Amino acid sequence: MPAIRPIETVWALLKQKVYEGNWTALSKQQLAGRIRRKIKEVDIEVVRTLLERVPGHLRLVGREGADALI
């Protein structure tokens, strides 16, 4: 459930940025450096919004079950 685990969405956003333009890492060090650079491009407001919605989503799931988020 991405709505309950927003980290899945954040990882997807970061992965998209890291590999944009069909970029390929030639080493672990190169990949780590690219991740460090690209994480700065992830919109912090998007992350903040995802995190702020978690408590409400959890309450909804508690009341109505996991299908309520679909």
Q: Output the helix-strand order.
A: HHH
Q: Output the structural class.
A: mainly alpha
Terminal-residue CA separation? 9 Å
Uncertain runs are none
Counting H and I runs of at least 4 residues, what is the number of helices? 3
Structure description:
The chain has 70 residues and is mainly α. It has one domain (7-69). The chain has helices at 7-18, 28-38, 44-64. Helix 1 (7-18) packs across helix 2 (28-38). One of its GO terms (molecular function) is nucleic acid binding. InterPro entries: RNaseH_sf.
Describe the structure concisely for a colleague.
One of its GO terms (molecular function) is nucleic acid binding. This protein has 70 residues and is an all-alpha fold.
